[in-house]
Amino acid sequence: MKKLTKVLAMTLAAAMSISMLAACGGGSTGGDTAADDGASTAASGEKLIMGTNAAFPPFEFVTTQGIVGEFDGIDVAIAKNIADSMGRELQIEDQEFDGLCAAVSTGKIDMAIAGMTATPERAQNVDFSIPYYVATQVMVVGADNTDITSAEDLKNDKKVGVVLGYTGDNIVTSELAVPEENITRANRGIDIVQDVKNGKLDAVVIDSATGKALAANNGLKVVEDPAAFESEEYAIAVQKGNTELLDQINTVLQGMIDSGEIDELAVKYSEAEE
Length: 274
Prior knowledge:
Elements: E1 47-52, E2 55-56, E3 60-62, E4 71-72, H1 74-86, E5 89-94, H2 100-105, E6 111-112, E7 126-128, E8 133-135, E9 137-141, E10 160-163, H3 167-175, E11 183-186, H4 189-197, E12 203-207, H5 208-217, E13 221-223, E14 232-234, E15 237-239, H6 243-259, H7 261-272
């Protein structure tokens, strides 16, 4: 696998002002992260609670011996640095991606770090850190597939897989307008890519770093279409108004960006997934 896209250090505009108890996905809510009636309590303890969806290599995944228990990846390493800088123990809650913003909004977790794209829609519900990684979408197809060379080809009666709540879900559903009966959704990229390998799907639209890692591990190939898939910025989500935590996160991220540490992590974990 080629090295991952070099991290770009850019400042994200301030998020929108009114907090809403909505999930990260386009208009949907997470099943396991419904709103609490009480106030936020996560940030008051000795632990720093990170919410993620640990099926998104190389950013977060489960392994036999990870950085924090069974959890490993670029995002886990970043979160560990943040927790260490605060003198707190990092606790990781693994859950469905589509419910992460709601979990942040209600204080069930302190921060969501999950290869999450900072979008205006999500910024209605959470505050975002500065971006720490820039990615795009790709299509994962069979190794011998010659029918799919661009995103437009997905409209030609192709069976397409996406991960619920991911950017690929919105692109396939809204922008490409693939018929609903031709779309299959799953909660994990690992699972949906297996459907391509098993011949149940023609393609999966997913974030570039994860798509390349999963394709390499499953004997599949990646098709890129820069004209159709714009770049997107990954950032960390915190509860609206939690400026103390956000400032600490931004300080750590900027330090890791300036020192090249995030670039080094990207290379390390992309090579590990080859």
